[in-house]
Amino acid sequence: MAERDPLERLRRMRRLATGLLLAMSALFVAARLLQHRAPWLAFAAAFAEAAMVGALADWFAVTALFRHPLGLPIPHTAIIPRNKDRIGANIAQFLEHNFITHEVLRSELAQVDFAGGAARWLAREENSKAVAERLAGAVPALLKMVEDRDAGEFVRKAMASALQDVRLAPMLGQILSVLVAGRQHVRLLQRVLAMVARTLEENRDYLRQKVHEHSPRWMPRMIDDKFFERLMDGLQSILDDLGDEDSEWRARFQAALEDLIEQLAHSPEYEEKLRGMLARGLAHPVFREYVGDVWQDIRERLQADADLPESRTTGYLQRGLAAFARTLAENDTIRERLNGWLREFVADAVVERRGLIVAVVQRVIDKWDAETIARKLELQVGSDLQFIRINGTLVGGVVGLLLYCASLLLSR
């Protein structure tokens, strides 16, 4: 079906060129036969004679490209079938050096709005929903491929790798500095003090019992109770002093916090201690088990949601894609940057693999036999080549007529 139109066009042009040759032959015969009655027919005979020569010469030239004329093995005919391998190599090299280059691809891709097209496509609800459903449908299969132990190990290694180049002590010092600058450390201290005081009060009987258990047996209970009350009063007094901004305890706390911030910023010992604590924490079995449990819970929830007719995962993905499309359509800067990156990526990817592309072209041509490549090329350019035959017939006739007239002038 793909070759029907080119083949029909080729046949039509062949019939036209051949018909013109036959017409010139008929004109030549008629002119020669009737020339004695009408001498002016000599001009027609000269025209027809030269036209036949031109038509036959161009028929031979066109036919010789694709096959042996009349099946005769004349030298330097059937040029394309005899040189198909060289033609394949030349076509591949032509594509590689004239089409698959950075300059050509960048020029052609410069007007392509990849990001805008994607934004407009995703902005349509049916498209974003289809993409979201595909993504959500792939979630269960992907989750089944990941074991709980593998997930825990992946998270541990990812965290360790992400924090490898981070200086933990200065970062912690900066966080504390921000808290101190905003007096958030005071609020945090007050909450901690209130929590401690509440804990002491709620566990007063338990603490009293513990004091009695660790007191000497010979000590009277009354003295033990008084010791406990004084102990509790002392602890409450310390908590009250820490809560008072003008107290000595608050001043000591503030000085200790500022000294800690200074040490975190400049002391390598703190950095080493923090890294050691982090490494031990990430390698601890409890952490691995916790990550595994979290991953298992997430996986079960996602798998259960994927089976629902109205999956929340699909809804989240669809809304996210729609929001992404709107943002991309409204932000010219981001869209242009994304287009630039995509154009460069496509150009680089194609150029880097142009050797593979041209190799495919050459391999396909090499697999064709001589008849196949001749037929395919003739279907593409054969109809245009028939114009050579037509033009050769007419131009040859005109030239022959002019030469005949010139010979008459020279014979006088």
Notes on the structure:
- This protein has 19 helices and no strands.
- The protein has helices spanning 4-34, 41-66, 79-82, 84-98, 102-109, 114-123, 125-144, 148-162, 168-181, 184-202, 204-214, 221-243, 248-266, 268-283, 285-306, 312-330, 332-352, 354-367, 370-411.
- Among the domains are: 4-82 and 368-411, no CATH class; 158-300, no CATH class.
- The two termini are 62 Å apart.
- The longest helix has 42 residues, at 370-411.
- The radius of gyration is 47 Å and the shape is rod-shaped.
- By secondary structure, the protein is mainly alpha-helical.
List the helices and strands and how they pair.
Elements: H1 4-34, H2 41-66, H3 79-82, H4 84-98, H5 102-109, H6 114-123, H7 125-144, H8 148-162, H9 168-181, H10 184-202, H11 204-214, H12 221-243, H13 248-266, H14 268-283, H15 285-306, H16 312-330, H17 332-352, H18 354-367, H19 370-411
Features:
412 residues, mainly alpha, 85% helix, 0% strand
Based on CA atoms alone, the radius of gyration comes out at: 47 Å
The first-to-last residue Cα distance is 62 Å
Q: Which series of helices and strands comes N to C?
A: HHHHHHHHHHHHHHHHHHH
Q: What characterizes the major β-sheet?
A: none
Structural class: mainly alpha
Low-confidence segments, given as residue ranges, are none
Shape: rod-shaped
Number of helices: 19
Would you count the extended β strands for me? 0
The share of residues in extended strands comes to under 5%
- Helix proportion range: over 70%
Quick check: average pLDDT?
79
